[in-house]
Amino acid sequence: MKKTAEINATQVCQVRMQAISDAMSLLSGKWKFHILGTLIEGNALGFMDLLREVKGIGTKMLSKELQDLEVNNLVSRKVMNTKPITVEYTITEYGKTLSPLIDEIAKWGIDYRKSVYGKTDK
Amino acid sequence: MKKTAEINATQVCQVRMQAISDAMSLLSGKWKFHILGTLIEGNALGFMDLLREVKGIGTKMLSKELQDLEVNNLVSRKVMNTKPITVEYTITEYGKTLSPLIDEIAKWGIDYRKSVYGKTDK
DNA sequence: TCTGGTACTTCCCAATTGGAAACTACTTTC
DNA sequence: GAAAGTAGTTTCCAATTGGGAAGTACCAGA
């Protein structure tokens, strides 16, 4: 009869749990994955481009989310020397390392949707 | 000069974005991954076991999160016929399909931590 | 009968998140 | 000079999230 934690007391689990918290604190929120996914797909987009691509987002959120992603080195921001000043947002090399993770989530989400709305013989 | 969305207008992107939203709506929150991870690691835990394993969680949150996970068929709840009534929480077969995703997040989180606190020659 | 263990629920509150609308600021075009 | 396009910021508000503490209910053992 155990009265104290056992499973998660191991070093390996502690590290894993911490890692998941780290990752999710960077990637949580309604828009992060949408923005990252869009930037992975189409490189170098302006603020207004993103506003049009990421359906439903407003200027405040987009601005804030891009800042978050920038300080975490997932997205880079470059002010261009154009007549009406434009800004180029691109995914960084480091941001690209999220591709397998995003793919895995998308894959699971697609399967989930199938299992809910899909065939009834399950 | 494009004025309308182009990248995310494709059917493939729409489906992917929807899938990511689906998945995250089930898995977001402070505790979901911790609970799932613990249940994947150690099968069949009681409410109080989980309360001890998932460091920091309170009864209210644990109860609510377990209900969420149960309705989405990721965790199963079984009331045991014991003297002081006990409940067994187990991960479902479907819940186990989250393993690769959880592994991927943990892996990325560990690498992220290394890139922040790790070697400076990067 | 009182303490302790199981498994919760309820209530109240604070912090965070997210959104709409308006506003800034600068430039080019009509 | 007004309109439109660039890239945001600010303000105000509502909804969601999360936590602490206490309460409920049932049973067993000292």
From TrEMBL, chains A, B:
<dbReference type="InterPro" id="IPR036390">
    <property type="entry name" value="WH_DNA-bd_sf"/>
</dbReference>
<protein>
    <submittedName>
        <fullName>Transcriptional regulator, HxlR family</fullName>
    </submittedName>
</protein>
<keyword id="KW-0804">Transcription</keyword>
<dbReference type="InterPro" id="IPR002577">
    <property type="entry name" value="HTH_HxlR"/>
</dbReference>
<dbReference type="Pfam" id="PF01638">
    <property type="entry name" value="HxlR"/>
</dbReference>
<dbReference type="InterPro" id="IPR036388">
    <property type="entry name" value="WH-like_DNA-bd_sf"/>
</dbReference>
<keyword id="KW-0805">Transcription regulation</keyword>
<dbReference type="GO" id="GO:0003677">
    <property type="term" value="F:DNA binding"/>
</dbReference>
<feature type="domain" description="HTH hxlR-type">
    <location>
        <begin position="13"/>
        <end position="117"/>
    </location>
</feature>
<keyword id="KW-0238">DNA-binding</keyword>
